[in-house]
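From the shared-data thread, chain only:
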Amino acid sequence: MTGRGPERLTSIDGLGPLVRDDNVVVQGEREDYPEWRDFHERDIKVWNLQELRTSGFAEAAERAVEKLRGNGVEGSGSNSTRTFWVTR
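Structure, as tokens:
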């Protein structure tokens, strides 16, 4: 979605990237994978698994939604499932 990876997956029909880095939240990172290191060098917000356990998963979901809404991303969600659907 952010344009990283094989072109056939990241620019479908020449439309990628579809999502700006500052509208991406990665939650639950467990390992320091070399492929993911550039997330920390971008505007992508990353919370590792320990941070999620400390703050609580519900709080982390709320912070992610707040970040997206603060960027003007529109969507809807359910408090019971902590799902946030992003619309274009």
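Residues 22-86 form one domain.
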